[in-house]
Amino acid sequence: MFLMSTIPKFASNKKYWQILNKLVFGDEVSCPRCHAGLHENYCNKYLWRKLCRKKYRPTSYRASWLYGMKLSPRQLFILLYCWQTKRSTETAYLLAGVSYTTVRRWFARFRKQLPDSSKLTAMLEGVVQVDESYFGKRRSKQPQHIVVGAKDTTTGRIALRITDSRDRQPLEQFVQDYIVAGSLVAIDKWWAYDELELLGYAHS
């Protein structure tokens, strides 16, 4: 996603549209179907392919996260700036000149563009310790949460997940999501880990 430390101030909307087109169609601004170069027509706010004459707009291309946008390019960049710098909804509302509902809707749309953090984390391997802990106090009637964690004993890297139970299915899923098959999983004697060998893990 386009990162900003200040609100950009461009002389015209052309620069805004150039950046939006690159965000949607790539740095080379190429056709999503054949990857041929797209020609720019910023007066009419569309791109077109010279060979087939097909037109593309970042706000009408269904695969784009800008699909259906009614904001001006400057309003979009203001909202993106406010979201990235963690400004309040009220600040974004005042700066962009849009409704609170619009601000919340676009903040939610920005969040959907974030990559899955679990896919960004390299999986643990080798000898990996796995255990679960309860958080929350029963005496004060606070809801208790179960956190399952894994630690790579070689690198010290960890993985954590909040889960609903200590049953076999969620714990096995955690192991498969974060630990490379063939690793040695060091666990306690909890019954839910009894079938890890069937999934390709050694355990002790």
Task: Describe this protein's structure.
The mean pLDDT is 78. This protein has helices spanning 13-25, 73-84, 89-96, 100-112, 117-120, 168-178; strands at 39-41, 46-48, 55-56, 127-135, 145-152, 158-163, 184-186, 202-203. It has 3 domains: 8-69, no CATH class; 73-114; 120-203, Nucleotidyltransferase, domain 5. The protein is built from 6 helices and 8 strands. A hairpin with a 6-residue loop joins strand 2 (46-48) and strand 3. It has 204 residues and is of the alpha/beta class. It starts with 12 loop residues before the first helix and ends with a strand. The relative contact order is 0.09. The chain is 30% helix and 18% strand. It has a 5-stranded mixed beta sheet with strand order 6-5-4-7-8, with helices on one face. Strands 1-2-3 form a 3-stranded antiparallel beta sheet, with no helix packed on it. Helix 2 packs antiparallel against helix 3 (89-96) and helix 3 (89-96) packs across helix 4.
